[in-house]
Amino acid sequence: MKKFRQLRPQLLALAVVLVMVGLISPGFFSVTVQNGRLYGSLIDVGVRVAPVALLAIGMTLVIATKGIDLSVGAVMAITGAVAATLVADGHSVPVVLAVSLALGLLCGIWNGVLVAFLDIQPIIATLILMVAGRGIAQLITGGVILTFNDPAFSFIGSGAVLGIPMPILIWLAMGLAVGLLVRRSALGLLIEAVGINRRASMLVGVRARFLILATYAISGLCAAMAGMIVTADIHGADANNAGLWLELDAILAVVIGGTSLAGGRFSITASLIGALIIQALNTGILMSGWPPEFNLIVKAVVIVTILTLQSPAVADELTMLRDFLRRKGAQK
Amino acid sequence: MKRKLLAASSVACLMLSGAAFAADMTVGFSQIGSESGWRAAETTVTQQQAKERGIDLKFADAQQKQENQIKAVRGFIAQGVDAILIAPVVATGWDDVLAEAKEAEIPVVLLDRQIDAPEDLYLTAVTSDQVYEGKVAGEWLVKDIGDKACKVVELQGTTGSSPAINRKKGFEEAIAGHANISIARSQTGDFTRTKGKEVMESFIKAENGGKDICAVYAHNDDMAVGAIQAIKEAGLKPGTDIKVVSIDAVPDIFLAMAEGEANATVELTPNMAGPAFDVLEKFKADGTVPPKWIQTESKLFTQADDPKGVYESKKDLGY
């Protein structure tokens, strides 16, 4: 119950966005079963949010250590390119999955070593892979959109189990797994400790370097999953565009979720709700039929509003206003 | 009689000198970089064209930076090439380096994009007409649909980009005056497959499960390929239930056409160098000054144009 109260601002914002979208395009909430799978705009939101949701899971942990990972979009492009190459060469799905995930992990470890052991500032350390990564991906694909035709691999992007599309299952499962890992053990607390004061936590015996490395590794792993989903979705690897600017959406999702960029307290659930808010907005804008020139303006206005309402200053003012009104009511 | 003879002999001279010049012409080519598959194909075709004509092509990749292009052009001038081809990455900032080329009497031909510079600084520009491309796509749809009522959904390119603005304009011009055809929805798909698919999914849901949509017009083939997947996943038949028409003519759209899943595409030819070499050869031979703008052909391909064969001929160009 306490948890639910903490999530109240995010849930409220999601509800308001959904109601707004529902008003603009009736039929948004209708979910039917077609070809043995759930079908509807609400399901689209769940499917299309998958890449950002996965990135937000890893990003939450990284940001909680006072870091940031700008490379996730590029890592998506690299793993997507490698996965597509392997699939096109006729390798089996387990091999493709293993190699791609290992590669994502490796990219994450690279970032982690730069940040935790060489003490390079996270924004610069991850910028290196962000810039170089897309070039690496282009080298792998040879600069073309590498297409393949393999129903087994495409299943990750467009298949369904018990009517639920695979991307939804993947981000839910990953969120649950990482959430349980950090919250059912002391890991989450330790990560928060490192984020609030790395030196103090090291002095009391927390292995800060290792923890920071691990958060970047998880972030890389999440990016690999996201990369495979977008590759499977379009049956091809587009090195130029896969994951382009998604690192920013992921950071935004984490911030809407209330995790501070200054590190410390974090919530994976809240970040996932943040990702859902962004995607509900995106899908809502597409359904609205407004000219595309408005897309970014509408998105910016809604997000500024949400962040303003969440800001501590505004929250204080609102509390004071409430108390004032109460006192006035009591005087009468 | 005398005049005729003179004309004939001058033509013969022209042909001779043209051939002679082509054989030992050195041309510098400053390419933007590898921003897209089409760009890679343009590079491949330029090299092929140069080889066929016996032109010595010096290639410089600018990696999307104008400063690299300016450096490359200065390098070409220093080497004393016979002509320079530039695929300009941006429209402004060319005046100085083009003036240097002019001073060295090296003709410059712009490929694929126009620039903001005085016209006397370059010989000519070889580009496609993007408005016309949209028009060709629209005219195909008008002809194909006939008198039936048809609701079209449009997948625009990146908002504000010139191909998006122009291809939209051309299509609208073509369907103007045909009251049976209307654009029901129009959104940007950012020229990518992923966004094209996502936007098409929402169009299908917004338009009665796709039953109200008669055709989709995409500003490039990649978005069309994404839209085709969205249509299939919604349980409809692309190419029959919803017609698909797009622009660019990249190899993958021909695969879709061969399967009957796409209906028509308008080619943005990667052969910009061919016409450029033609005018350069003429200019070198007898000083024929070409018009300031040479429009490339915007050819329409449909399912009747042997899509399998076109795919085979295009797939190794580096798209």
From TrEMBL, chain A:
- Which InterPro entries does the UniProt entry name for this protein? ABC_transp_permease
Location(s) in or outside the cell: Cell membrane
Pull one GO CC term from this UniProt entry.
Answer: plasma membrane
The name on file for this protein is: ABC transporter permease
A single GO molecular function, which one?
A: transmembrane transporter activity
Q: Which organism is it from?
A: Paracoccus aestuariivivens
> Which UniProt keywords are present, listed alphabetically?
Cell membrane, Membrane, Transmembrane, Transmembrane helix
Pfam families, per database record: BPD_transp_2
Write down the membrane topology: Multi-pass membrane protein
Key word Cell membrane present: yes
Bilayer-crossing regions: 12-33, 45-63, 70-88, 94-117, 124-148, 160-182, 208-230, 242-263, 270-290, 296-318
TrEMBL record, chain B:
- MF term (GO), any: carbohydrate binding
* Keyword Signal in record: yes
Which family does the entry's similarity section mention? Belongs to the bacterial solute-binding protein 2 family.
Which positions, given as ranges, span the membrane?
Answer: none
Where does the signal sequence lie?
Answer: 1-22
Q: Which residues form the Periplasmic binding protein domain?
A: 28-271
Q: What keywords appear on the UniProt entry?
A: Signal
Record carries keyword Manganese: no
Localization, UniProt: Cell envelope
- One Pfam family it belongs to: Peripla_BP_4
User: Record's GO cellular component, any one?
Assistant: cell envelope
In its UniProt entry, what is this protein called? Substrate-binding domain-containing protein
